[in-house]
Every structure is written in C-alpha cells, then in structure tokens.
Prior knowledge:
This protein has helices at 16-19, 72-80, 95-98, 117-129, 145-156, 183-189, 218-222, 226-237, 269-277, 301-318, and strands at 42-43, 52-57, 101-106, 134-139, 160-164, 199-203, 214-217, 242-247, 284-290. By secondary structure, it is of the alpha/beta class. Helix 9 (269-277) links the parallel strand 8 and strand 9 (284-290). It has a nine-stranded parallel beta sheet, with helices on both faces. Helix content is 29%, strand content 15%. It is globular and about 55 Å long. Helix 8 crosses helix 9. It has a single domain (49-318), classed as 3-Layer(aba) Sandwich (Arginase, Chain A).
Amino acid sequence: MADYDPSQIGDETGDAAFTRASPHGGSYEATYAGATSFLRCQYTRDLTDFDVAVSGVPFDLATTGRPGARLGPRAVRDASVNLAWDLPQGWASNPLDQLKIADWGDCVFDPGRPETWIDRLEAHAADILATETAMLTIGGDHFISYPMIKAHAAKHGSLSLIHFDAHSDTWEDADGRIDHGTMFYHAKEQGLIVPERSIQVGLRTHNPKTHGFNILGATETCGSDADTVAAQIKKAVGTSPVYLTFDIDCLDPAYAPGTGTPCVGGLTTRHALDILRALEGINLVGMDVVEVAPAYDVSEITALAGASIAYQLLALYAARP
C-alpha cells in the first residue's frame, strides 16, 4: 500500500467496496461512511484471478450458551474499516498489496431447515475452493468450522488443525448432532484432521480426553512468550496443510466480552496477535474467526479484536511457503 495520505480521506469517490479500480491496496475512506466490506475489499462473486475470498456465515443454531454470533460477520466487517488504511500489526508488508482479496458476502441458508445447513455451507466452500481461491471465513458460531474443514479436506487431504479456543470442542457426541462443542471430535473421527499433527491453544475448560491432540493450555500459553508458543505450534503441524481456526473466546473476556461462552483466564489481544505473527511460514490453506457475538460486546472491542485477528490471518496466508 502507498504511504498514508490523509488527503485521500473523504474524497468524492467513496464506497471502495464497489468503486475501487484495483483489487490491491488499502482504503483511506472515512471509517464512519461507505459500504463496509471486509477491509473495504471489493464485493464480488466473480473470483477470477482472486487469491482469497472473505465470506461470512451468519449462523448460531449450534450454540450451547448465549446466542448472537449470527451477527458476527457484520460486526467484524464494520470494525475492519478501522484497519483498512494500515498494515496488520507486526508486519512490514501488507497482504492487501500482496494478494487479490474479494469480499464474497455471506453464505445464507434457511434457518427453518437446519438439517440442510451443513451441506449448504460445505457446497459454498467447495464452490469457492474450486476456483483456486483460498477462504477466510467469519462466523457465526464455531460449528461452522466443521463443514468448512470438510470442504478443505476434500481439496487438500487430511488437515492439521491449529485451534485457538477456551474450549476443546472435542467432547464425544452422537453422529448427526449440530453442536459447537463437539465438531472437532467428529472431524477427527472422520479423518478430516489428524490430531497428532494438530494443536489446541489457550484451552482452560476441562475435557478428560485429548483424543490425541497436542494441547497448550491457557496457563502454559499465557506464561510463555509468543515465539516459544509459536515454535511449539510449528513443531506440531510441521509442513502439512493447516486449517487455522480462532474462537474469539480464546481471549480473556476483559479483551473480548462479546461472545457466547466467555471464560476468564485467557489470552490478551496483544499476546494473540504476537503468536499469530510468529507463525509465519506455516502451510496455511484455510482459516476462520468465529464466535463474535456483538450483543454482548462493549465499545465494539470484541469485533475489533476479531477483525484484527482476521487481518493477521491474511498476512499469514500471504507469507505461506
């Protein structure tokens, strides 16, 4: 992106989501006006020659606590306009310059027919991946990761999972149930992810079974510097294709109150951003940020954290081998 030029703010063009002449570069639009695509990227469903598609999944029918994550994609997009003019924190280059990024919009479904929803989202992801475009998905509750992983595993083979969360989401469950606390158990059972080369970071709720996943609990994660944590994550996943999912409740509720199942004792936003920055070089093939529930937010800090983390994920994807 070119050097910051305040004179470009508030020009008469506006609405970069529709009017930008190039898919590259940030945006200098006023943060309080204009169409709020993610980072002011172009809204389009023609993914010809695009590198990454950002899509929202406004779904929260799998929540076990407070609902509201269906409003997450809109809130994260709104917060992202505060970031669109600058580099992601810690990076010397901008993924908005390195990648052609489109905002695809939201994957919609009929909430009156929840039995169709898994297939609907898996097909949505498969259609995008078939264009050789990577995906950054914004939830929605954490169950959305399951059909996303199904589609990514169909393209890339069994995946390594990097999972930032307060909860393991591997509690054993009957086949066919939709629950945001059990989907990685199903993904493991179905061979979509390989637990021995996957890792869960920031956990601080009890599950007596690890199911073979590497685990960095919150105490260990918060007590270690970012480089140490990142080195352990990289050791676990190696060079295998990685799907990275970030549940916003991995952060302590002091930094992310706007979520359905908050749990004290988590990461600071600063520590999370530094860990993600230190993961440069992983073979990232898919990514999501989930569980932002703006009804419980304070001054939009959770949405801003979600948008900032998503921006870091784009930088990680741009830096892949």
